[in-house]
Amino acid sequence: MTRTSLTQLEARDGFIPRHIGPSDAEQAAMLSVLGYQSRAALIDAVVPANIRRKDKLDLGQFFDPLPEQAALAKLKSIASQNKVMKSMIGQGYYGTYTPPVILRNIFENPAWYTAYTPYQPEISQGRLEAILNFQQVITDLTGMGIANASMLDEGTAAAEAMTLIQRVGKSASKVFYVADDVLPQTLEVVQTRALPIGVEVRTIAAADIENLQETCFGVLLQYPGVNGDVRDYRNACEKLHAMGAMVVVAADLLALTVLSPPGEWGADVVVGNSQRFGVPLGFGGPHAGYLATRDDYKRSMAGRLAGVTVDAQGNKAFRLALQTREQHIRREKATSNICTAQVLLAVMASMYAIYHGPKGLEQIARRVHRYTGILAASLQSLGYQLVNDTYFDTLTVITDQAEEIHRIAYENGVNLRRIDARHVGLSLDETTGRDEIALLAKIFGDAAGKQANVDFDSLDSDAQDAFPAALSRTSAYLTHPTFHRYHAEHEMLRYLRSLADKDLALDRTMIPLGSCTMKLNSTSEMIPVTWPEFSNIHPFAPEDQTVGYREMIGQLEAMLCAVTGYAGVSLQPNAGSQGEYAGLLIIKKYHESRGEGHRNICLIPSSAHGTNPASASMVGMQVVVTACDENGNVDLADLKKKAEQHSANLACVMVTYPSTHGVFEEGIKELCEIVHAHGGQVYVDGANMNALVGVAGPGLFGGDVSHLNLHKTFCIPHGGGGPGVGPVAVGAHLVPFLPNQASTGYQRAGENTEQGIGAVSAAPYGSASILPISWMYIAMMGAEGLTAATETAILNANYIARRLAPHYPVLYTGHDGLVAHECIIDLRPLQDKTGISNEDVAKRLMDFGFHAPTMSFPVPGTLMIEPTESESKVELDRFIEAMITIHAEIVKVERGEYDRMDNPLKGAPHTAEVVTADDWKHSYSREVAAFPVPSLRKRKYWPPVGRADNVYGDRNLFCGCAPIEDYE
Ligand SMILES: *Cc1c(COP(=O)(O)O)cnc(C)c1O
């Protein structure tokens, strides 16, 4: 035996074989099924030669993969350049304590963070219940009739509210007023959104709203205002309504526990952010925004909505209601393009409310308010004057020494809000204690050259509620038992566990969702997210405190440029849909900059994801649909014809590559050339980048703009429906138009802010605190690992396609009968013969403990399977076995051995209650129902509910916690 060398022994555990599921031996076995000698040979056959990368992916200093510990150490040293100070900047972002039971059991728990959006309700009851709780928190606190399941942030929620009232309101006006004390970052997002749809945004002094005479379709108010004022808008609302205008109020949830909710004084829509309910600052996100409105407008609301229905046995079941995937149905007529939202953060915020309960929340709010009163008195005793005589937690101090105050504050480790040379702002929060009040008094005292009074007893006895008495909250909230039962940690721990146990996430099974790329979210990637150096940074903290963040972000931007072949990237958009929106705005601005602002036609193939047409219409483009041929490819003849027809006005084409049909179309380069020849730009939807990384780059084969989904290709977990990051990447000619943020002076290094499209998110870097996940992934994979991941994803998909083909036809294939990184299997022939639908197969898979593949997208009646590179052959074979077993059941229906209506497929999923009930009336056995394959005896997931009734749920829409009677 040869002796192992020291160098061999010294080789550190690499991350690549941890991320890539199949071992070398498994890969060889799969390749032999496909008839290829090597993975390279397979890739040569799958990927058209004319789009292949000529050189190796150049990741610069990240070319070589870093072992897990080394990557963590490197990122830690970058993170440690951030300075964690006490941020009292406020302006929509506040200090908060994440209850440790929530931190560990939700935020750091793969059972929650690796789940998918709950489109399959039966395996999503836990997170659906949590979302319903969130909706209940929001409806209660805002005093509105209905609230949705989360928005991307406060800024975009306000923008969605603006378009909502435009849709449902009666006014024909195009004018929207924004009070001058609305958060500046919200105003910016609203302005960005208003411009392309012809809405004129005007600002108005908050104090003058009551006297507004000009016609408008609505106004946006902030409650309390950014300077701290708590204004009584009741008369204003009455007048505005009488004028035919509607009222949107951006409100602070903590303040609403003690202030009269906007729903009680005339708001039509209430929006905001739930960050301060236990979600770390994270340099601006991710946090769950919210949107609540009157019951009448529920069908016009943007975003997702969880609701209650019944299952096949008549038991209560939760599911997504109404517009679930409305972009796929309504496309360019959809109410908004929101797809991925902020579910994980909404779940955290809801659990914070549940853990504290109404009394606990009110105590936090009253404490914050009392401290604010004490501080106000102390500042006044120093001779300072305040701008606002009403407040909840925010004071704006008048001073001619603003710079000096900021300097002293800084020396004491405190960030205050920079307003201008004569005003300093500050906001208190849950984490404020006597020490902080004393420190603030000292800071302002030092600036004034005086000793402040910090005698809490005397100051306290003077402190009164500092908001109008008429705005004192009298109505109860969070009265449902859910908000009273889980205050003991054991109760909370077990509640969280019981919910997680109802759901299928990646910690239990592969989730083969086509187009969604449910790959490994490794623990090393997740760990840095909760490092204080990343999580305790305010988005508007001074630059010298965010050096580490900006270095990490700069490196990630460079990595993504290298991967895509583009020249610049912005990480601001906080979902793929937002990246699309930003990318299309960039194209629009580019045309305008060349005097071709009339170009407004957007060509979109019929196979496109629904967010594409929805985004196009949001930027005011006109969608022209182009056909696909019988092989699933973009019909180039039709595209050419339409490009010619619209040549003078052609703005762009939006194509997904490889296509949503799961094939590498040979004609992609030609497509780009055709569109360019007619003066259009090429938008390549990058959701399928998992088939391209290291192998080809959209910026190299003809694309001008792409969005990426870091929550697909780059390992950010889906969180049960968000968070996500949807960077927009562009060619050199479009770099000047990338998003910026004027209110914070944020712009990409060296860019001219004038040309940028403005802000598309509230925070300059969007959901910054989850960017370390993608950084870690790329750093640990290196060029070689990323390329291997792509190749293995393609291998895994082809292996599944080949093994399933004898049972289920694969709808579209490319060269040599091969698919890209996903495959569509066609259930329609079987359905025609047997009545068994793709939905029946999806539900039956639950009995096997699997999450269904993507249903009916992009082709109705099909299933789209994407295994990703992270699934081992063992797991793929388990899935294949389930699918083949299901096929055999369908054959039994076909042969008449099973009844067409009473069979294991139509009966699926089977709950434990159904299977163990004394009366069993089915023509198939209980054993077949519950244990269709032997391995399930060792490892069985029991769906908690039977098949959810969608029609019932929409007819009897109910979107909150169960009525109190149900708990008795
Ligand atoms: C997922 C997806 C999108 C939308 O991305 P979100 O992050 O969910 O907004 C757009 N296009 C395609 C092809 C997708 O698969």
Automatic annotation (TrEMBL):
Segments forming domain Glycine cleavage system P-protein N-terminal: 18-444, 454-739
Function field: The glycine cleavage system catalyzes the degradation of glycine. The P protein binds the alpha-amino group of glycine through its pyridoxal phosphate cofactor; CO(2) is released and the remaining methylamine moiety is then transferred to the lipoamide cofactor of the H protein.
InterPro entries found in the cross-reference section: GcvP, GDC-P_C, GDC-P_N, GDC_P, PyrdxlP-dep_Trfase, PyrdxlP-dep_Trfase_major, PyrdxlP-dep_Trfase_small
SUPFAM superfamilies: PLP-dependent transferases
Top class in the EC scheme: oxidoreductase
Documented EC number(s): 1.4.4.2
GO molecular function, one term: glycine dehydrogenase (decarboxylating) activity
Catalytic activity, as annotated: N(6)-[(R)-lipoyl]-L-lysyl-[glycine-cleavage complex H protein] + glycine + H(+) = N(6)-[(R)-S(8)-aminomethyldihydrolipoyl]-L-lysyl-[glycine-cleavage complex H protein] + CO2
Highest taxon, organism lineage: Bacteria
Subunit structure: The glycine cleavage system is composed of four proteins: P, T, L and H.
Protein name: Glycine dehydrogenase (decarboxylating)
